[in-house]
Amino acid sequence: MTDGAVTEAARVLVAADKFKGSLTAVEVAERVTAGLRRIVPGVEVETLPVADGGDGTVAAAVAAGFDRHEVRVTGPLGEQLTAAFALRDGVAVVEMAEASGLQHLPAGVFAPLTATTYGSGELLRAALDAGARSIVFGVGGSATTDGGAGMLAALGARFLDAAGQPVGPGGGGLSELATADLSGLDTRLAGTEIVLASDVDNPLTGPKGAPAVYGPQKGASPEQVAALDAALAHFAAVLEKSIGAGAAEAALAPGAGAAGGIGFGALVGLGASFRAGIDVMLDVLGFAPAVARATLVVTGEGSLDEQTLHGKAPAGVAAAARAAGKEVVAVCGRLTLPADVLGRAGIRRAYALTELEPDVERCIANAGPLLEQAAENIARDFLVRE
After folding, report:
1. Domain 5-48+289-385 has CATH 3.40.30.10
2. How far apart are CA 304 and CA 300, in angstroms?
C-alpha cells in the first residue's frame, strides 16, 4: 500500500484484450484489478474484457452479461465439437473461431485445402433458432480458406460440380465448382441484421487476399496458396454468374478476405455489413457508458506492435476513450512501438511485462504475477499523489 494520497474520485476502467497464449481477457482484467488494489485498496475498478472479433469474442460478450449457448457443430476437419455463441435481448455474438478456428486442429496438423467453415454456418443457424434478430459475426483465427462456402452450405446454399454433386470441403474443392445456388438459404437471414466484425480489411484474392496473406499461417505451401487463390477467384466468378455483379464487388470489398474469405461469404450470401471488429464490440459491450464513468482507462493485449494500430482492440479502445476525454494507459507482454507512436494512438504510456522479466519464456509462464506488478506501477504513476 502506498503512503501517498489517492487521486480524488479515481475510477479505473480495465478494457483489455487477451494475452494470447497466456491469459484470457477476463484473466487480464482480474490481474490488473488485483495489482491496482494492492497499491490503492479502495480504488473503484470496472472491468470490461474486450475482443476485436477474433477468438475470445464470445467470452468477452459473456463477461459483459450475455448468456452463453452451447451447440454441437462440425469442426474444420469434419469432426463434431462443442461451440458457443452469446445472446442477449435478441442480439447474438457469434465467433467463427468457436467452430472453425485453428485451435481445433491437432498440434502440428493443418488442412489448408480441405478445412471447412460448415460449423460456422451451423453456429449461425443455432443463433437464429435461439431467437437472434441481430447477429455480430466475429471472424478471425480461422483454420480455413474456403471463402465461406462451407458456412453458406450449412445455411442451405448448394455448390455443385459438373456432375451435379456437391464439391468437396475447403477451398480446394471450389476448383471443381460448376454451379452455385443460393436460393435455398435460410429465409430468416433476410430479416436479420448481420454485422461482419473483423480486424482485417483484405480483399478475397490477389497479393493482399486471404490465401496470399494468411494461407501460410494455416500451413499452405506456396503452391497451395496459388491453388487456393485461383479456387477462390473461380468461386467468385461462378457466384457472379448466379447472382450478378454483386459477387465481384463483394470479392473486392474490405473484409472479404477475413478469416480465409468467410468475410466474402458473409457479404455476398448473408447480406452482412462490414465494420471494424473492435468498434462493433465496444458498442455491443457497452463501452460508452463505462468509459463515461471512468477517470483512467487501462487497455492492452499480448503484443503492442505495428499490427495494433490497424484495427486491434487496444487502438480501438484508446481512440474511443480519447474521444471521451479520458486518459489511457496500456499493458502488454511485449512492446515494439515508440512513445510518440503510442501517443498518437491515444495511449499515454505502455507497461510491458518484458520490462519486468526479459526472458520471454519466463515472461509468458509468469504473465499473471508480472501483470499484477505492472498494474502496481500504473497505480503508483496515475492513482497516487505524493
Report:
1. no
2. 7
Cell of 49: 474484457
Instruction: Give per-residue pLDDT as tens, 120-137.
Output: 999 999 999 999 999 999
CA 384/CA 3 separation, integer angstroms:
9
SS3 138: strand
Measure the CA–CA gap between 4 and 10, rounded to whole angstroms: 14
Q: Could you state, in order of their start, the residue ranges of all structural domains in the chain?
A: 5-48+289-385, 57-278
CATH 3.40.50.2000 fits 57-278, yes or no: no
Predicted structure pTM score? 0.92
pLDDT tens sequence across 352-368? 999 999 999 999 999 99
Helix (H/G/I), strand (E/B), else coil: 252: helix
Q: Coil, strand, or helix at residue 205?
A: coil
